[in-house]
Amino acid sequence: HMCTMATLPQWYTDAVAIKPTMSTMQLDGRRVAYLRWGQDRGSKRPLVLLHGTFAHAHWWDFTAPMFSDEYEVIAVDLPGCGDSEHAESYSEASFVTSVFAVLDHAGLRWREGSSRPPPYLVGHSFGARVALTAGRSHADEVGGVVALDAVIWKKAPLTRGPAISSNVRYASSPEDLVARFRLRPPQKCANPFLVRHIAERGLLHVPDKGWTYKFDRSWFTKLQPDDRSGLIAECKCRLGWVYGDRSMFYLNTDTTQYVKDELARHHGVIPTALHNAAHHIFLDQPLETVAEVRRILSAWNHGGSPQGGTKL
């Protein structure tokens, strides 16, 4: 089912009409790309958006503008994804380094005496792990972390993420790849126009070969293993948590209970479950996701607890 332009909802067309500027910088000799909404010379707080596995910064195109009145919004292409170059190896720590390098390059990194408050980090899926890692290693430079359907296990699984062939296949037209695009983990999405939006913006044309996806197909095999279980306890900044009530990760009651227990014990926070949302919560429930993130950030801005009065 393809949406015609006539059937696209107004909120979506309004949001994507607000175009970001793309910038690139060099980090260790490799290009890192990022998008920015707003070019405020003043003192707005930065809001950094971090995508998940095999995704890219344009996954935020239709939600980022809803924050740009209040924040300087940055969406990073993590190394190996989007328009950032592929690397020989990846780690959560190296992704954190790239996030702060981008903030530096954009003139938004927090330092003592800064006119801007420190950034809020909002991460989805693997991007939430990067945000939590930043809250562990750079807590004094982070105003707070909001995790969207973060994948946290009580014990790290032995498997290394979804298997994907490292052979690059080329298509003769971008439409072939858009049609072939599937969300991982597999799920239906009630908003096919959003899936189409992210698929179209994740493609690369290689002269004499054809069209392919931008992400590094060997991303998972190059990812250095990291102990994933203690991230909630070790995150030393304010923390908000939102997950989908249909997310395959949270349908596992052990995982959900572990996350709830860790959040209560270490942060006094109750996570929010979004109704009728699977893992990709802002594709399933974009406006509800934005409203919930805004509510958490607003509570922080007014000196309240992360969950607006539900601190245990």
Description:
With 312 residues, the chain is an alpha/beta fold. It has helices spanning 10-16, 92-105, 126-137, 174-180, 192-200, 219-222, 231-234, 253-267, 281-284, 286-301; strands at residues 21-27, 30-37, 45-50, 71-76, 120-124, 144-148, 203-206, 210-213, 239-244, 272-274. The strands form two sheets. The chain has an eight-stranded mixed sheet, with helices on both faces. Strands 7-8 form a two-stranded antiparallel ribbon. A hairpin with a 2-residue loop joins strand 1 (21-27) and strand 2 (30-37). Helix 2 (92-105) packs across helix 3 (126-137). The radius of gyration is 19 Å and the shape is globular. The model is unreliable at 307-312 (pLDDT under 50).
Low-pLDDT runs of 5+ residues are: 307-312
Rg to the nearest angstrom? Answer: 19 Å
Q: How far apart are the termini? A: 45 Å
Largest sheet: 8 strands, mixed
Report the total helices: 10
Strand order of the largest sheet: 1-2-4-3-5-6-9-10
Number of strands: 10
What percent strand?
15-25%
Shape: globular
Q: Approximately how much helix is present in the residues?
A: 25-40%
The average pLDDT is 91
User: Order of SSEs, N→C?
Assistant: HEEEEHEHEHHEEHHEHEHH
Q: Find the structural class using helix and strand composition.
A: alpha/beta
